[in-house]
Specification:
Radius of gyration: 37 Å
Largest sheet: 5 strands, antiparallel
Structural class: alpha+beta
Oligomer: single chain
Shape: elongated
Number of helices: 4
Strand order of the largest sheet: 1-2-3-8-7
Strand content: 25-35%
Order of helices and strands: HHHHEEEEEEEEE
Helix content: 25-40%
Number of strands: 9
């Protein structure tokens, strides 16, 4: 029996009102009451969370210009940055992470793993620097080279070559920067005379 039919029956025959089931009406009223209470609670919780997430920092005296200003150079002197770069000109292998670098204000520490050197004895590998380039040779032949992201002091360069995984030698090197400026990496461009991509 629908709600409308029950209302008509109670109007026409009040004496049968007590026999009409009220479960449906009661359950709907109960659901409506619970829903209203839930929505009110959610509204209160949302408002409370919103008020907690905001903080008054007006007493700091900062402006948007202060937040956009670059950090003072003295704060960056002792900070080191690091990252990875590709050692290949082949775009299919552009994410080989063959160059791991760590940059300090004065110098760079670099670890090179060049796949084209696979199988070459560590003792036959050498690294030469100019002011703006680095060149890796094996038995005197140029295997790999790159243009640096900045100018270095060639005579300060030091390197060590050890055997690595999968028969790929690992080149560990350090070189001082000519000026105390951030390079943001080591390799600006892999040299065109690089033949390691073909090996």
């Amino acid at each position: 029996m629908t709600t409308t039919a029950m209302l008509i029956m109670t109007m026409l025959y009040p004496q049968v009102q007590s026999f009409i089931p009220t479960t449906t009406v009661t359950s709907r009223i109960a659901r409506a009451t619970v829903t209203a209470a839930f929505q009110k609670r959610v509204s209160v919780s949302t408002a409370a969370a919103s008020s907690e997430s905001s903080s008054d920092v007006s007493d700091l005296g900062l402006t948007m210009e202060d937040l956009d200003a670059p950090l003072p150079p003295e704060l960056l002197q002792n900070l080191a940055s690091s990252g990875y770069e590709s050692t290949t000109r082949n775009l299919d292998n552009a994410d080989d992470r063959g160059c791991e670098w760590k940059e300090n204000l004065d110098n760079l520490e670099v670890i090179l793993s060049i796949s084209g050197l696979r199988g070459q004895p560590a003792q036959c590998i050498s690294v030469e620097f100019s002011t703006t380039t680095a060149t890796v040779t094996a038995f005197g032949y140029v295997i790999w080279s790159c243009v640096l992201r900045g100018e270095c002091v060639p005579e300060s360069a030091k390197f060590n070559v050890v055997d690595g995984q999968d028969m790929v030698p690992v080149i560990q090197l350090t070189v001082d920067k000519k000026e105390k400026q951030r390079w943001g990496g080591f390799i600006a461009q892999v040299g065109e005379n690089t033949i390691s991509d073909l090996m």
